[in-house]
Amino acid sequence: MLPTPEKGPGASSPDTETRPAPEPLNRVQALINSADLASGVDRLADPASSQPWLQAQGLVSPGCIPTAEELSTIRGFREALRALVAHSSGGPAPTEQQLAPLNGIATQATACVRLDADGTVRLAPVGDGLAGRLLALLLVIADAQREGSWAHFKTCANEGCRRAFYDRSRNHRSTWCDMGKCGNKVNNRMFRARRGHRDSDN
């Protein structure tokens, strides 16, 4: 099972997400949004600075600094998740190359059947290594797909943003992580483009 994320400066919380996903899907959201494409800020820029955030999210053991190779694996996994969520939002199907980081973890790690105290049967990763911790996120996705919450988990339609968000709107047709920030920006850009096209025709 993925360790419970710590509550601290590096941890994801509803206060840091304008449209947070329900637990435990919010852990997948936190990883995807660890790279802010709009500002260029990446929480996983280097091993030392990324350690507190990764530990807070339960992706590394306390005090464990990831190697450069492990951090590269996590970043590749993150972008594969982004492509997967974009597809569920109506975007193109991810390519085999885009899915390779996810399938690689699925191949490396092992899951077993566990029985909880309340009688619930579930799959849980075996071991405490990075592959097992990332596999736990794939199991979260599998549960979300089965329960139906995955259909409301999307990426922002603003190509300069692409943050993951959870659509709680009544008709579940939201396309922006933040209408005031991304929606208005894209709509204004489209309006200016249409106006420029009309002006060029005159």
Please characterize this protein's 3D structure:
The chain is mostly helical. It has a single domain, classed as Jann2411-like fold (Orthogonal Bundle). 46% of the residues lie in helices and 10% in strands. The strands form three sheets. Strands 1-2 form a two-stranded antiparallel ribbon. A two-stranded antiparallel sheet has the order 3-4. The longest helix has 23 residues. About 4% of the residues have low confidence.
CATH architecture: Orthogonal Bundle
How much is the radius of gyration in Å?
Answer: 19 Å
- Give the number of DSSP strands: 6
CATH topology title? Jann2411-like fold
How many domains make up the coordinates?
1
N→C terminal distance = 64 Å
Low-confidence segments: 8-15
The backbone outline, from C-alpha atoms, is globular
Order of helices and strands: HEEHHHEEHEEH
- Find the CATH superfamily: Jann2411-like domain
Strand arrangement, major sheet: 1-2
Top CATH class = Mainly Alpha
How many helices in DSSP terms?
6
Helix content: 40-55%
> Kindly state the mean pLDDT as a whole number?
88
Task: Tell me the β content.
Answer: 5-15%
**Structural class computed from helices and strand pairing:** mainly alpha
Describe the biggest sheet? 2 strands, antiparallel
Summarize the structure.
The protein is mainly α and 202 residues long. The chain has helices at 25-32, 47-56, 68-88, 96-108, 130-147, 179-201, and strands at 35-36, 41-42, 111-115, 121-125, 153-155, 164-166.
